[in-house]
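Might you be able to review the protein record set out just below?
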Amino acid sequence: MMNPVLWRLLPLLLVLVWSLPTAVVAQAPKASPSAVTIPPSTWADVDSAARTAVAQGDVPGTVILIGQGARVLYLKALGSRALVPANEPMTVDT
């Protein structure tokens, strides 16, 4: 089960990711898991919470971005960015 603090922070994380300019994300250097201080198990918890939210219909889709400094640690798109008039998959640059 995911940490309750992460569950409470998930909406804020999603809003922050939503508001990030895609150009900044695209230019940020990618980091290897061994070079970061945020444990990859936390990434899995956030990913799991986002997948659950999409599967339960709480949100149609989301983009997960976990960063440290100017580095992108984890970037993934889940679900749909549009449902009407047609279902369109979410992309990391949505």
